């Protein structure tokens, strides 16, 4: 009995982990007790756990992403604290390895992606004038698979041990020989489960955007955010199967003794590196392209100008998406390919700077002669341009294969990709979050607290990461848990630590802003607080379940702006009963079973794994035979809802704030 | 529900049209999936370690049978859809049963093939080549199996 349970123990237990174990148990009990005490189980089940409404699913995605932001942020703070002084003893080498591994995975896969997917869930159907996504129930399944995948990954550090081979999980380090705990099993299986959800999201949103646009919205009349999301999802559909295969092969190597990435019997460790980055590089664009879309919306809204160079924006994104599949080998120039291969990948990598540069100039020309209003979302966008430029230019430096031998695996690289990903994704999702918040909830976040958090994060970001360019060029290797005083890296690393604290304060302020604004911000000030341009602002805030009472008719890329400025009629026709999909508990239940399945696989417990696999198939079979035609919202009900929304907005001023 | 009778019956409702379109995109993802598996296989094909090479173990007879069986089943399921469009339920069911039987036949030969590989010392864990080969074939086998049960 004891032997059976000993497998769940953490191999490198220390006080910090024991404290987290206790804290997690306490928080779980508190949540269950709280929900029971306030009698919210029914509400939770009916309104959230079984919902198929794209807006609510989007909110759940964003909430989970924020949660994961703090998990990944705690990892980051620990890393900076450990390296703040030479020969520091806060963490040992093993613990440090685990923390940089989970920091990478959590931030990319469980923070950046779900944040982006959350925003696209909320915004895309509204922006194209649709009632929901093409497959609402699949959408719920996507979310719950991501959520339980993320949870499975997160329990690794208290049950059985965290993955510790870096987020890239290179072989042979990630093999059974060198990663002896179950950590890398968690990596392979948790990401697999979440990845299946992401692939479904990809299919769902491509279908939604291609097939469900409002009448008149031709492809070249879609708002730029919709374009960016369409291209992102095409990348998802073609990149994620590669990850699926790579992770499956990894699972088989670790659990069933196959020889794909082994060091003997013909195995090839470099195959993993190639497969990982064939997915991994497009993945970077999966999180960056939506950011470009968000910035395009925000810059054009707050500069009060039509987006400059619409067509070139679209073509440059298409070019970036194609190139994203042709650059993967630049992640391992030093791992033994010849001059020819390195040369080709250098050229393709540098080529990406061209379409990205086109976009930069388009944004600048949109700003040119604009009446710029520096609201919080616009501040993020304005900080993005110069900071991302530094990230891009250092990227071109790294793209030169021969020079890369100098920078490779140093803090210079760490600084580079944080200079790309933080302004390119984190700033963007925070900007989008602030921008669309009033659409989702019917009130705005505080500008004042928002500005404080912006300045804290934007300044502290540079304080944290700029020193790494210098220590990196001086030779500080990444992923090293300690260094000696004689290297001279101490002072700059300490500066990084101070910056990290500043960023933590900034992120805490964002949470405080949510709390403060939820309690004190004025409600229903206006439906269109930013004087925006696209369709999502043409309906009420918060948005009724059916999105639009009458499907809008579109004639340009900025339909709502034209309606306001030129008085074009958006809503032609009359009320008709609206068909809605019914809620379903199946996605939630199926994902819980997936969680059990994953957990059993991680520990090689075959009997529960087989039983839960049968459970998953049973759910699929049930779904195939289920007859579910949804329900209709009657005309009277629509009129009543519309009236209620209108009364609220009239009490607080006209629909459009000029 | 709005029906459009100018199109084949499976396209007659909006929801079905969306589902079919979504399935095409899913097939795109499947192409990427199998392309990755093929790339893996061809990368590892000559890395046989101490195990046998393809030359030692491949036999063409079962491969030929499997190919004929699978291609025929694609044809019969096409006939089933044609029967469905013609509203001929009996013919549709007949062709579906034939398709399912052919699928079973394929799986039978494949299982035979796999046990044979294991017997002659070309099991999953022998070398990178056998891992790649059996994973590629096995993934396809799982697809046929899932398709079989979904079709039931």
From TrEMBL, chain A:
Tell me the compartments it is located in.
Cell membrane
Pathway given for this chain reads:
Energy metabolism; oxidative phosphorylation
Q: How is the cofactor bound?
A: Binds a copper B center.
Task: Write down the required cofactor(s).
Answer: Cu cation; ferriheme a
Where are the membrane-spanning stretches? 16-38, 59-79, 99-126, 138-159, 186-206, 227-250, 270-292, 313-333, 339-358, 379-401, 413-437, 449-474, 494-515
Membrane topology category: Multi-pass membrane protein
Q: Which keywords describe this protein according to UniProt?
A: Cell membrane, Copper, Electron transport, Heme, Hydrogen ion transport, Ion transport, Iron, Membrane, Metal-binding, Oxidoreductase, Respiratory chain, Transmembrane, Transmembrane helix, Transport
Q: What is this protein called?
A: Quinol oxidase subunit 1
Name the species this protein comes from: Paracerasibacillus soli
């Amino acid at each position: 009995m004891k032997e059976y349970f000993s497998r769940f123990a953490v191999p490198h237990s220390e006080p910090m982990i024991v404290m987290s174990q206790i804290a997690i148990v306490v928080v779980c009990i508190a949540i269950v007790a709280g929900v029971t005490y306030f009698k919210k189980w029914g509400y939770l089940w009916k309104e959230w756990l079984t919902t198929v409404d794209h807006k609510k699913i989007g909110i759940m995605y964003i909430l989970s992403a924020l949660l994961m932001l703090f998990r990944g942020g705690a990892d980051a703070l620990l890393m900076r604290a450990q390296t703040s002084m030479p020969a520091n003893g806060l963490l040992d080498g093993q613990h440090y390895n685990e923390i940089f591994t989970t920091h990478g995975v959590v931030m990319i896969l469980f923070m950046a992606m779900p944040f982006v997917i959350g925003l696209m869930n909320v915004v895309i159907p509204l922006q194209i004038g649709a009632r929901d996504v093409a497959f609402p129930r699949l959408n719920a399944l996507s979310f719950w698979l991501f959520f339980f995948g993320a949870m499975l990954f997160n329990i690794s550090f208290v049950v059985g041990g965290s993955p510790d081979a870096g987020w890239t999980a290179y072989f042979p380090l990630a093999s059974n020989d060198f990663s002896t705990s179950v950590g890398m099993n968690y990596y392979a299986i948790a990401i697999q489960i979440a990845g299946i959800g992401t692939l479904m999201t990809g299919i769902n949103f491509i279908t939604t955007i291609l097939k469900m646009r409002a009448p008149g919205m031709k492809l070249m009349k879609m708002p730029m955010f919709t374009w960016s999301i369409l291209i992102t999802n095409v990348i998802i559909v073609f990149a994620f199967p590669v990850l699926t295969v790579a992770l499956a092969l990894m699972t088989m190597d670790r659990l069933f003794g196959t020889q794909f990435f082994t060091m003997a019997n013909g195995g090839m460790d470099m195959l993993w590196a190639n497969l990982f980055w064939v997915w991994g590089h497009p993945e970077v664009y999966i999180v960056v392209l939506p950011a470009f879309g968000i910035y395009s919306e925000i810059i054009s809204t707050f500069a009060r100008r039509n987006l400059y160079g619409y067509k070139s924006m679209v073509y440059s994104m298409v070019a970036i998406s194609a190139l994203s599949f042709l650059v993967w080998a630049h992640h391992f120039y030093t791992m033994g390919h010849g001059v020819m291969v390195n040369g080709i990948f250098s050229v393709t990598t540098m080529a990406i700077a061209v379409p990205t540069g086109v976009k930069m100039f388009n944004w600048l020309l949109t700003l040119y002669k604009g009446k710029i209003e520096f609201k919080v979302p616009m501040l993020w966008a304005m900080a993005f341009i110069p900071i991302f430029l530094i990230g891009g230019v250092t990227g071109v430096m790294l793209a030169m294969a021969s020079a890369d031998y100098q920078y490779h695996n140093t803090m210079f690289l760490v600084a580079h990709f944080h200079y790309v990903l933080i302004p390119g994704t984190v700033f963007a999702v925070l900007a989008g979050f602030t921008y669309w918040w009033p659409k989702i909830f019917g009130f705005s976040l505080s500008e004042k607290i928002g500005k404080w958090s912006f300045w804290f994060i934007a300044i502290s970001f540079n304080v944290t990461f700029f020193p790494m360019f210098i220590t990196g060029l001086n030779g500080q290797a990444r992923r090293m848990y300690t260094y000696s005083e004689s290297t001279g890296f101490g002072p700059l690393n300490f500066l990084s630590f101070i910056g990290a604290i500043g960023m933590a304060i900034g992120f805490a302020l964002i949470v405080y802003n949510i709390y403060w604004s939820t309690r004190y911000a004025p409600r229903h000030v206006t439906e269109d607080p930013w004087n925006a341009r696209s369709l999502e602002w043409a309906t009420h805030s918060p948005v009724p379940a059916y999105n639009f009472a009458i499907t809008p008719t579109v004639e340009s890329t900025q339909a709502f702006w034209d309606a306001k400025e030129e008085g074009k009629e958006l809503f032609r026709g009359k009320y008709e009963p609206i068909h809605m999909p019914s809620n379903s508990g199946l996605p939630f239940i199926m994902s819980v079973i997936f969680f059990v399945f994953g957990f059993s696989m991680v520990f090689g417990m075959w009997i529960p794994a087989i039983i839960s696999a049968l459970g998953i198939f049973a759910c699929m079979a049930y779904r195939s035979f289920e007859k579910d035609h949804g329900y209709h919202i009657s005309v009277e009900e629509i009129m009543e809802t519309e009236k209620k929304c209108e009364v609220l907005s009239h009490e607080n001023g006209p629909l459009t704030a000029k | 529900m709005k029906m459009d009778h100018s199109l084949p019956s499976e396209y007659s409702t909006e929801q079905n049209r969306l589902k079919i379109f979504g399935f095409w995109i899913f097939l795109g993802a499947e192409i990427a999936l199998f392309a990755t598996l093929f790339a893996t296989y061809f990368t590892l094909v000559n890395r046989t370690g101490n195990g046998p090479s393809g030359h030692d173990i491949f036999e063409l007879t079962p491969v030929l049978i499997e190919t004929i069986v699978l291609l025929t089943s694609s044809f019969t399921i096409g006939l089933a859809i044609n029967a469905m469009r013609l509203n001929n339920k009996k013919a549709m069911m007949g062709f579906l049963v034939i398709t399912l039987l052919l699928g079973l036949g394929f799986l039978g030969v494949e299982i035979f093939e796999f046990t044979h590989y294991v017997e002659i010392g070309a099991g999953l864990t022998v070398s990178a080549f056998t891992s790649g080969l059996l994973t590629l074939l096995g993934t396809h086998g799982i697809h046929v199996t899932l398709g079989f049960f979904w079709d039931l």
